[in-house]
């Protein structure tokens, strides 16, 4: 009887070109974590996009096409795993910037076809949502807070392909808002670390910044109005004194960070209470995405979880941000239950995990992105 699955994973949905080899232990024929990450290669593109203050899709797609084969070669070599030892090749098939997603899907299909291996197309968000199973062996069901540059959702993870959205951002994702705030204040890209660094010397209570949607029921969030309030506060300073001082900037960063953390923590606490009857005897909530690295946010989430009697699971930072190990693991879970995908599986810019949930405001004419 087979005891494990070994998959090569590829991730190229935004601005990280990644490849990884992961071994998933099997129990009764199904993956059961924690898994073993044999290798993980992540090629960051931040320097390519820094001058523009955000990700440029065309530049990202070109970089993926140039780097994917190199990342795959490095991942296989680091794992000491030849193609013949793999059970399948998995790649992010959506959602994401379509040029990058297409690059990864076509690369994975080519490898699978050439080596005679099964191909598995993975939902990028499922990769994040299933990461606690890779790292901790977390059992279903659990909650997942995904906070990144492109996404903000609170999901009930009921199974490898069963997700229910409890809430999400109706406008900007938190990472996107951090990037915009950094640009407004003359800081660098990516904005999250820059804002957090400046906030260390700031007074979070100096400016009266709003906590949007806190007066409404439910778990949906908003960050666009908070960003606008910060811009107005900055403009008032500029008008009154001809510019902003270093302390002004630190105080604005601290106030924005505190407000964002409060919104995320309080909305998450609502989700914990709403999901509690289904959570089982050892309720757990996991957090993933680049914004999960923010220490103020981590502290607020830990306090909220502890107050409700829940365990907070935070994978290592290298697995919170986009990576291919999570894609390989999600691919193993999908392969074991559903089998391989056909080679005509399309790349998808939009692919919601909870297809039955109403689209969030701002999802566009083509429907919900995620």
From TrEMBL:
Needed co-factor(s): Fe(2+)
Binding site for Fe cation: 124, 128, 322
A Gene Ontology term for the protein's cellular component: cytoplasm
GO molecular function: iron ion binding; tRNA N(6)-L-threonylcarbamoyladenine synthase activity
GO annotation (BP), single: tRNA threonylcarbamoyladenosine modification
KW Acyltransferase (keyword) present: yes
Domain Gcp-like: 36-329
A Pfam family annotated for this UniProt entry: TsaD
Record keywords, A-Z: Acyltransferase, Cytoplasm, Iron, Metal-binding, Transferase, tRNA processing
Reactions catalysed according to its record: L-threonylcarbamoyladenylate + adenosine(37) in tRNA = N(6)-L-threonylcarbamoyladenosine(37) in tRNA + AMP + H(+)
Protein family (similarity comment): Belongs to the KAE1 / TsaD family.
Name of this protein: tRNA N6-adenosine threonylcarbamoyltransferase
Native source species: Albimonas pacifica
């Amino acid at each position: 009887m087979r005891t494990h699955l070994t998959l090569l994973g590829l991730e190229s949905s935004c601005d990280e070109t990644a490849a990884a080899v992961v071994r998933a232990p099997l129990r009764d024929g199904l993956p059961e974590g924690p898994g073993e990450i044999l290798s993980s290669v992540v090629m960051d593109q931040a320097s390519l996009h820094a001058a523009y203050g955000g990700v440029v899709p065309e530049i990202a797609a070109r970089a993926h096409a140039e780097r994917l084969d190199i990342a795959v070669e490095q991942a296989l070599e680091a794992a000491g795993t030849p193609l013949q030892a793999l059970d399948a090749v998995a790649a992010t098939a959506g959602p994401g910037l379509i040029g990058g997603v297409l690059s990864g899907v076509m690369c994975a299909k080519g490898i699978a076809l050439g080596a005679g291996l099964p191909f598995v197309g993975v939902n990028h968000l499922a990769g994040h949502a299933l990461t606690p199973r890779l790292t901790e062996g977390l059992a279903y069901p659990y909650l997942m807070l995904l906070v990144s540059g492109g996404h903000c959702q609170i999901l009930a993870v009921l199974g490898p392909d069963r997700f229910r959205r409890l809430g999400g951002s109706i406008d900007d994702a938190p990472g996107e808002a951090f990037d915009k705030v950094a640009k407004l204040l003359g800081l660098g890209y990516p904005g999250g670390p820059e804002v957090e660094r400046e906030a260390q010397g700031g007074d979070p209570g100096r400016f009266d910044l709003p906590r949007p949607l806190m007066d409404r029921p439910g778990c949906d969030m908003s960050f666009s109005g908070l960003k606008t309030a910060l811009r107005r506060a900055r403009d008032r300073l500029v008008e009154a004194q001809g510019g902003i001082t270093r302390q002004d900037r630190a105080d604005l960063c601290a106030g924005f960070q505190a407000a964002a953390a409060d919104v995320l923590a309080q909305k998450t606490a609502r989700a914990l209470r709403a999901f509690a009857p289904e959570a089982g005897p050892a309720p757990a909530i996991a957090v993933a995405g680049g914004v999960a690295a923010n220490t103020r946010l981590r502290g607020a989430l830990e306090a909220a979880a502890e107050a409700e009697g829940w365990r907070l699971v935070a994978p290592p930072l290298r697995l919170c941000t986009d990576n291919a190990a999570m894609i390989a693991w999600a691919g193993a879970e999908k392969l074991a239950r559903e089998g391989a995908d056909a080679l005509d599986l399309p790349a998808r810019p939009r692919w919601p995990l909870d297809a039955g949930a109403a689209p969030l405001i701002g999802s566009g004419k083509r429907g919900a992105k995620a």
